[in-house]
Structures are given as C-alpha cells and as structure tokens.
Amino acid sequence: MDKATLVGLDVETGARIVSVLEDAGIAVKVALWMVTSEYEAGRLVLASSSLDQVHPLRAYETVFEILHGKFVHETPLLLVLRMRDPFIQSLRQLFSKSESVEGMRLGGQMIGNRFIEDGYVYRIR
Known about the structure:
The chain has 4 helices and 7 strands, in the order H-E-E-H-H-E-H-E-E-E-E. By secondary structure, the chain is of the alpha+beta class. The chain has a 5-stranded mixed β-sheet. A two-stranded antiparallel ribbon has the order 5-6.
C-alpha cells in the first residue's frame, strides 16, 4: 500500500476481512483504512466489543487465527483498538447520526488523538 493513498486492492481486501470476521462471530463496530504519519504504512483499523474482552495481544491473535488461510496475499497491517480508545470514541461520536458511512473518505483532519492523512470507512457503529 502506498503511504500517501489507498488503492483499490486494499479497499477490497478490507471489505473481505470485515466479512470474514463477521462470519466468525466478531461484531465489528468500527472498520476503516487509515493512513497516518504515526506509521510507515497504512493500517486497517478494527474495533469490536468482543475483542475488548481479552488482552490486546490476544485480540490480535484472535483476528489472525480467524483470517489465517483466507487470503492468497499477506494479511494487511492491522490496528485493533479497544472500543474505549479515544480515536474510536471520537469516530463513533462524530458519525453516530450518519445514516451510512460506508465508502466515506476521511483525510486532513484530527479525530480523537490521531491525525488522519487518508482514510476509507467501512463502518462506524
């Protein structure tokens, strides 16, 4: 993934990851691609109440166990955040009244404790 922009394959892969997690019983509340200066490359950000119940490292293990073998290419870089994370809380507050956010682009803005250079939203519930 290019640092400055999100490309088509990433958007499709993210949608598939959300679908696979949902099929496995993980109710994904927040899912979006995010490019930020905080990281060298973009991340698929995920948040779910069911992943909050475990240690953060265990949340990653759970996600990777579910995704293992489901993709021909490498699993993209992920950022699994707790529902109480300031970034997740801010996203949910900002978009709580939006009917649909799927496909929305974010960028050039501070949300919670993170500056988003570019982003593509799958869901914010």
